[in-house]
Amino acid sequence: MFDLIIIGGGPAGYFAAERAGQEGLNVLLIEKSSLGGVCLNEGCIPSKTLLYSAKLYDNAKQGERYGVRADNVSFDHSAVLRRKNKVVRILTAGIKAKLTANNVKIVNEKAKILGKTGDSFNIKAGDMTYQGKQILIATGSVPVIPPIPGVQEGLDAGYILTNRSILDLAEVPASLVIIGGGVIGLEMASYYNSAGSKVTVIEMLDYIGGFIDREIGDFLLKEYQKKGIQFKLSSRVTKVEPGSVTYESDGELFTIEADKALLSIGRRPATCELGLEAIGVELEKGRIKTDSCGRTNIPGIFAAGDVNGVSMLAHTAYREAKACINTILGNEDIINYDAVPSVIYTNPEVAGVGETEESAKKKGLDYSVKKLSMRYNGRFMAENEGRDGICKVLYDNQSQRILGIHIISSYASEIIHSAAMMIESKMTIMDTDRFVFPHPTVSEIISDTILS
Questions:
Q1: In the predicted model, is pLDDT for residue 401 greater than 90?
Q2: I need a labelling partner for 203 at 20 to 30 A (CA). Which of 4, 7, 405, 422 fits?
Q3: What is the SS3 assignment for 191?
Q4: What domains lie within the chain, and their CATH numbers?
Q5: Residues 175, 165: contact at Cβ < 8 Å?
Q6: Which residues form the catalytic set?
Q7: Cβ atoms within 10 A of the Cβ of 424, count?
């Protein structure tokens, strides 16, 4: 009998297992594939490894701006992939070592919930059945496959790619069409544009970036266009064939060349074939419905990470896993989703937390905006010749409480956590006046913008 059985070894699953093991619980972690889940094996880490290589290449080509001249700079995609695989292997081994050190039992099988007997839940994994007092479901998400003519055939043949297969693409395609202008699509557009592909992004909406502040997204769009990436906004893909993608815009059909096409229109919670119906776990539009502590409608059953469909980000999964374990231990822990930052690791990076102008308007909030160009920042100017960015702060007019902070700049991903802490702590504009930011750093732009 285990105190806790965790289904899924991605960020939510392995973090929860480690924390629960540290607290003395007898934990079983069941993962059907590789420890680390999508994030470590086919998402966050592999893509960032590729993007860093692309950033180094871009910087080398532009070195003359900084008095550094390099001749015959080249990009070796195969070497980039080898390094990516090495990084993943090292980190995966590290996760397994930490779990083992905390006495977590790991089973590499597909899990299915059979039901409940007395005070224990029964879970089948391979040829074995295990009993657990409580269950944490952390099975993550899978790509959405739309019913577009030719898509399934393209996936089977290999000329249509998913977020997983594009990270193992042996050669850089001459032309790449990306279906969807969200986070994954934009990051891969950035990498393959730098690597030498002719990249076109087709997006149904009239803007890119999905959840990000619209002004920030428009700025990123212009930066991408300067690099030669083409965008077809307010456009809908109608057919995919070997070597081409057809889309509709303003009632007309257009066909463009595509050696490869990346399908990147979103992800859905992975809840199929888990046996949820055996114990009556409530679903809402395909996601496991949870409260702000990670509890489902069934006592003893928790869910964390993409499977609950609230905020499909790895760091959200960590936070949800922490809340679940704290609650299991009797220390109820409430998640504040308003303080969860989001990042697009493009070049330049985009990061934001809290309300955007669009969400603030939709909620009818009485707010104002403070905004500064990144050219106001000394560190940014020293390292970004000929470039610009934005720091944008939203605050409540009555209480002066900070509602949201959004940045497009180098290092945006590394400094947004300070903004998240301001929102988590419900700080006002003047509360931040006593903070000391090191100089010169890009992070100073947050303080400068707030106090401008």
A1: yes
A2: 405
A3: helix
A4: 2-143+268-337 (3.50.50.60), 155-264 (3.50.50.60), 348-450 (3.30.390.30)
A5: no
A6: 439
A7: 15
